[in-house]
Amino acid sequence: MTVNEFGAPVAFFPGLLRGEFHFAGTADIASVATWPARGAPTGRMIVTDRTGALRAALDALPHRPVLPAPAELCGRIANWLVLTHRVALPG
């Protein structure tokens, strides 16, 4: 288990699978509207939603985000690749 760069707990499972977990109260549901997309069917994302407010907020999001331009995406990948390489070096 680790915490990603956005503060969310992440668990790793066999087969290079990962689970990202977000724990929030009812007052935090409005922040879901700031997400770029949901990335999965709503029914697979929710563990508990007593009022239906979380489902409504998730259903309002696009399934997939708008992808950045290829140059921006390649820049991000290069940044993470170089960072990972430097962190892995001894010393």
From the structure above, extract its key features.
NT_sf; 91 residues; three-stranded antiparallel sheet; alpha+beta; 3 strands; extended
Uncertain regions spanning at least 5 consecutive residues: none
Largest sheet: 3 strands, antiparallel
Computed CA radius of gyration, to the nearest angstrom: 17 Å
Instruction: Report strand %.
Output: 5-15%
β-strand number:
3
Main structural class: alpha+beta
As a percent range, the share of helical residues equals 25-40%
Number of helices: 3
| Count of discrete structural domains | 1
H/E series, N to C? EEEHHH
- Our measurement of the CA-to-CA distance between the termini, rounded to an integer number of angstroms, reads 25 Å
Q: How confident overall, as mean pLDDT?
A: 91
The strand line-up of the biggest sheet is: 1-2-3
Describe the global form: extended
Tell me what you see in this structure.
This protein has a 3-stranded antiparallel β-sheet with strand order 1-2-3, with no helix packed on it. It is extended and about 50 Å long. 33% of the residues lie in helices and 12% in strands. The chain has one domain. The mean pLDDT is 91. The chain is built from 3 helices and 3 strands. The protein has 91 residues and is an alpha+beta fold.
